[in-house]
Specification:
- The chain has about 375 residues and is an alpha/beta fold.
- The chain has 3 domains: about 1-115, GTPase HflX, N-terminal domain (Rossmann fold), CATH 3.40.50; about 120-190; about 195-370, Rossmann fold (3-Layer(aba) Sandwich), CATH 3.40.50.300.
- Helix content is about 50%, strand content about 15%.
- The chain has 13 helices and 10 strands.
- It has helices spanning about 15-20, 25-40, 65-75, 90-100, 105-120, 120-150, 160-195, 215-220, 270-275, 280-285, 300-315, 335-345, 360-365; strands at about 1-10, 45-50, 80-85, 105, 200-205, 240-245, 255-260, 290-295, 320-325, 350.
- Strand 9, helix 12 (about 335-345) and strand 10 form a beta-alpha-beta unit.
- Bound molecules: guanosine-5'-diphosphate (GDP) and magnesium ion.
- Guanosine-5'-diphosphate (GDP) binds near residues 213, 352 and 353.
Length: about 375
């Protein structure tokens, strides 16, 4: 096992609001720890720390005092990797790695790494590579800003640093163009598939990562073991949208019902990553019905809901949204009863995709969506 450290960074007020919108530090640390351990089974998070920054430092992101204390901790515990839940530039990463003598990875790089590891289809892999281009370019831009600050922000920079940045930028642009061409081609095929589904009613499962979308997909379709979606407790396992026929058209239901399992969302998911996955997420955008699967047992379930609604809005989803409150089996009996009651009052469905509790009622609703 390789020891790792998760560092929660509370940024100065203005940027903190823009970046993390004041999430609970403990939730952030837990989520980050889960991401880290899912990214590499050999890693074990042995230290979780929070630091408050009054300002960010152009060279090392965190100040001298914190850096020294962190360096000592890292050496003492033999930590090999430090995971920061804030975005840093390429320059800051290099300097931090040098001074702390361990790998330094920020949240977005970590999410990208997990996406890359889970991308199984050609389209998924291309989309991750496309997102990586935007990410690398933004990190170059930050390196550029920092050089400009050193020069007082005026005039041309000149010198080998600038030339290297410009070269890197051009190379990234070239890769991005090639990827776009390949993605366009795949997108045309996707358009054809979509047209073939025109007379069907599409129901998309959406929600926060790990809320139980794939488990519910397997349950509603009663899939045999061999054809089930992967539901290990890991974020972003389902990168490629999976669509299956739920019911053929009948006299009472004119259209065939299709069910789609989609990639989940997470707090502070960078826009460029959502944009890169727009093609895959078209199934959610086009769906006539969206089942928003929520982990009602999570301490930050309300925040997760807001995050998902933000992404759905960004994607321009138009379907009717039905909330599914999942994991009620994980609640105490009193909270479970309260959840079932308030779900009933608010038009939501309280279920456990794991035990099947409440799934019968949900299936009845789902089978009648085309008539609602
Ligand atoms: N206790 C409990 N765990 C669940 C339930 N539904 C899913 N899970 C677990 O939550 C984790 C993530 O489930 P998954 O379906 O892969 O989530 P997805 O990321 O939304 O697709 C897995 O470990 C599941 O076994 C549920 O109703 N109750
Ligand atoms: Mg899934």
């Amino acid at each position: 096992m390789q020891p790792a450290c998760v560092l929660h960074v509370v940024l100065p007020r203005a940027s903190q609001q823009a970046q993390a919108e004041e999430r609970e530090p403990l939730d952030c640390i837990d989520e980050m720890t889960h991401l880290v351990q899912s990214s590499d089974a050999r890693l074990r998070v042995v230290e979780k720390k929070t630091i408050h920054l009054r300002k960010t430092h152009a060279q090392t992101f965190i100040g001298k005092g914190s850096l020294q204390a962190l360096g000592e901790l890292i050496a003492d515990r033999g930590i090999v990797a430090l995971y920061l839940d804030a975005p840093i530039s390429a320059v800051q990463q290099r300097n931090l790695e040098r001074s702390l003598a361990c790998s330094v990875i920020d949240r977005i790089s970590l999410i990208l790494k997990i996406f890359a590891a889970n991308a199984k289809s050609q389209e998924g892999r291309l989309q991750v590579s496309r997102a990586e281009c935007v990410w690398q370019k933004s990190r170059l831009a930050k390196a550029w800003q920092h050089l400009e600050r050193q020069r007082g922000g005026k005039g041309f920079l000149g010198g080998p640093g600038e030339r290297q940045i410009e070269l890197d930028r051009r190379m990234i642009d070239k890769t991005a163009r090639t990827l776009d061409k390949k993605l366009d081609k795949l997108n045309r095929n996707r358009g054809l598939q979509r047209r073939a589904r025109q007379n069907c009613h599409l129901i998309a499962l959406t929600g926060y990562t790990n809320s139980g979308k794939s488990t519910l997909f397997n349950k509603l379709l009663a899939l045999p073991e061999a054809r089930r979606q992967d539901t290990r407790h890991q974020p972003f396992l389902t990168l490629d949208t999976k669509i299956k026929r739920l019911r053929d058209s009948t006299q009472s239901c004119a259209r065939t019902l299709l069910l789609a399992d989609t990639v989940g969302f997470i707090a502070s998911l960078p826009h460029f990553l959502i944009d890169a996955f727009t093609a895959t997420l078209q199934e959610v955008v086009q769906a006539q019905t969206i089942l928003h699967v929520r982990d009602i047992s999570a301490s930050n379930s309300a925040e997760q809901k807001l995050e998902v609604l933000r992404v759905l809005e960004r994607l321009g989803c138009r379907g009717r949204v039905i909330e599914v409150w999942n994991k009620i089996d994980a609640l105490t009996i009193n909270r479970r009863l309260a959840a079932v009651r308030s779900a009933g009052n608010s038009g939501a469905y309280a279920i456990s995709a794991l035990t099947g509790e409440g799934c019968g009622g949900l299936l009845e609703l789902v089978e009648s969506v085309d008539r609602l």
